Amino acid sequence: MPRYIKRIWAGDVYEAKEYFSPRERGISCERAAKENLSSEEMAEYNCLEARRKCARMVNANFRQGDLFLTLTFRERVDVENALRLFRNFISRLKRLRKRKGYSELKYLYVVESKRKREHIHLLINKMDISMKELSEVWGLGRVMVSILEPGGDYTGLAYYITKENYKEYGKRWSGSRNLEKPKVKVTLVSEEKKTKRLRVPKNYKVIEEVQYYSEITGHTRYVRAVKIGGEDYGNGKEGEPHLSLIHI
User: Fold this and answer.
1) Closest CA to 117 of 68, 87, 160, 82
2) What pLDDT, in 10s, does the model give residues 156-167?
3) Is the pLDDT assigned to residue 247 strictly greater than 70?
4) How far apart, in whole angstroms, are the C-alpha atoms of residue 21 and residue 80?
5) 85: number of Cβ within 10 Å
6) If you average pLDDT over residues 109-130, what whole number do you get?
């Protein structure tokens, strides 16, 4: 089978993955290997890929000073109504940004129902908004606000907000249409050019490097690096995000 390297640039984060694939060319060359997976294996694979894609979108679009919000509900709601109320909130927030003269709203969100109590995790681009204003714009319950720290790699935060699975509603996360997509390049690798370690661009620091065997991609090598100049966000590990919280 041909061997490929997929390179991904998402903001200040660089990833490279070397793997086998039965397909000859293209970014989607991993798909052909999925046909022999069981439903459980496919679900696990899709879950991991969804979380990785979320991390890349976060890293590509959000920076130090942007806001991480958790929106709660005073009254019990189901996921469908939580989404409806959230969309209304986004409309109000867009109007507020426009009145204040800010750029177009960019956001990424996840709905969670831990212990059957719905709440929403939300990332938005920077704006100067008081706690009182934000509480009034939401108006449905408690709001918790954090400011993203310097670093450039918010993989740990993305993994935290996608820790829960709600299969009946499909996507694990979603966002505004104006989010920038990470840059992806897939190249064929010859055995003659294979190196002992995957290389990273100059001025990048390796923060994760693993080798493993996958039913989909065979023997696989993976590396993640962040541009030198900022602290890595928790080394991309799952868990509670280490941000200063402001309760409203």
Assistant:
1) 82
2) 999 999 887 655
3) no
4) 39
5) 20
6) 88
Residue 21 pLDDT class (50, 70, 90 cuts): confident
CB 201 within 8 A of CB 225: yes
Q: Is the pLDDT score of 241 beyond 50?
A: no
Radius of gyration of the chain (CA): 20
53 contacts 104 by C-beta, under 8 angstroms: no
Put simply, whether the predicted model's pTM sits higher than 0.90 gets the answer no
How many CB atoms lie under 10 A from the CB of residue 191?
Answer: 6
Tokens read off for 239: 């868990």
Residue at token pair 């390297």:
5
Query: At residue 237, does pLDDT exceed 60?
Result: no
Report long-range pairs for 235-241 (Cβ below 8 Å, ≥24 apart). Answer: 235/156, 235/207, 235/208, 236/55, 236/153, 236/155, 236/156, 236/159, 236/207, 236/208, 237/156, 237/159, 238/156, 238/159, 238/160, 238/163, 239/156, 239/160, 240/160, 241/68, 241/146, 241/156, 241/157, 241/160
Interstrand relation of 119-124 and 107-112 (parallel, antiparallel or unpaired)? antiparallel
User: Which among 163, 174, 132, 125 has a CA at the least distance from the CA of 147?
Assistant: 125
